Amino acid sequence: MPSYPAMNDDATLDIAIVGGGIIGICVAAYLAEAGRDVTVFDRTGICEETSSGNAAALAFSDVLPLAHKGMIRHLPKWLADPLGPLSIPPAYLPKLLPWLVRFWRAGRSDRYEASLVAQAGMMRLAEVEWAGLMARSATGNMLREEGSLELYESEAEFKASLPGWAARQRFGIGFNHVEGDALAALQPGLSPLFVKGTFVPGWKTVADPKSLGKAIWAYAETKGARFERARIDRVEAGQDGATLTLADGTVRQAKRLVVAAGAWSHLLAKHLGDRIPLETERGYNTTLAKTAFDVKRQLIFSGHGFVITPLETGVRVGGAVELGGIERPPNYARSEALLDKAQKFLPGLDPAGGREWMGFRPSLPDSLPVIGGARQAGTIAYAFGHGHLGLTQAAATGRLIRDLILGQNPVFDLSPFSPNRF
């Protein structure tokens, strides 16, 4: 790996990126490939927080906005169970209400088509860009292409899923509904509770999300990208770029700035006059030993809001949504509840020795990320709010932000992703 001279703290950076998660990493890789001098700032390290413990899916077929995936229908039942697929701490509900109203509006039929088309376009780009980035970074060996299996406990649950599959079919997404022996062959050892399933052959996963993120970063470093461990407390816009104030009081200048700080991004955007309704889906998981169960592919239990993923590092059981902000301590009883369900659904699953984890998914009411420029600062771009699709859409976001910074026309209309749409 080539060596680069240390940066003087007083030097003006070319491009600063706030956030060392998978979005910031991919943005850095694309810009470094284009010959730009890139510095990434993160308080903990590269791919050490939310991007390290996700469910490892490249969910290119997941085009339905969250508000259209049955969440509204299930809401009363789920909220009645404090350890169910969706929970809201009562003390947090008043703060959350404006976001929930926006989420409800996003589920209206008159907004459905626009959101669906935008998300499908993003997913097509994401699949192409991930293939290219993996080839260039020699990370293709981390890709797994066993597909996914979504499971239903009743004929009624299966029928309720059909409109969503019809919508996916319009965009060329392939799938097969299965039952009986075909279902058992796709995942031996399933509980007889499940009467049907849907197999999606084009669904992909990665061997381990943290390992992939660090490998993409290692590639970016070969192109000249740099990392500084620091917490950014404030960003400001100026005529010639942006000012970053670090937690220790240090001030850094940059000609261009990309805010990709996940669940904390809206706090930085607020300093720039942009009020973006970002909330945090706190997700929980437990990673078991690889020998815990022979999971053939990612299993999706949509009626319960969680998945089981086979990784090179173990079997990961996780998901669910807790809308509780970024300050409350983790409630690992939610991880335990998911693990209890997993044992019921996969009889014989060994729960011993699991590692519990909680991460923050940065989510916007319409399930589309913010990709575009700050309202009053042409030198600052936003790349955040991907919800549970950050890994899936990271390479596409890297491509789009690179094109914006280089002054190139985007590959599709970015207005559905505009920071000014709210």
From TrEMBL:
Gene3D superfamilies the record matches: D-Amino Acid Oxidase, subunit A, domain 2 (3.30.9.10), FAD/NAD(P)-binding domain (3.50.50.60)
Organism field: Mesorhizobium tianshanense
Residues in FAD dependent oxidoreductase domain copies: 14-404
Stretches of the chain forming a coiled coil according to its record: none
Keywords: Membrane, Oxidoreductase, Transmembrane, Transmembrane helix
GO cellular component: cytoplasm
Cleaved signal peptide residues: none
Protein name listed in UniProt: D-amino-acid dehydrogenase
TM spans (from-to): 12-32
Entries under InterPro entries matching the protein: FAD-dep_OxRdtase (IPR006076), FAD/NAD-bd_sf (IPR036188)
Cross-referenced PANTHER family: GLYCINE OXIDASE, SARCOSINE DEHYDROGENASE-RELATED
Domain of life: Bacteria
A GO molecular-function annotation: oxidoreductase activity
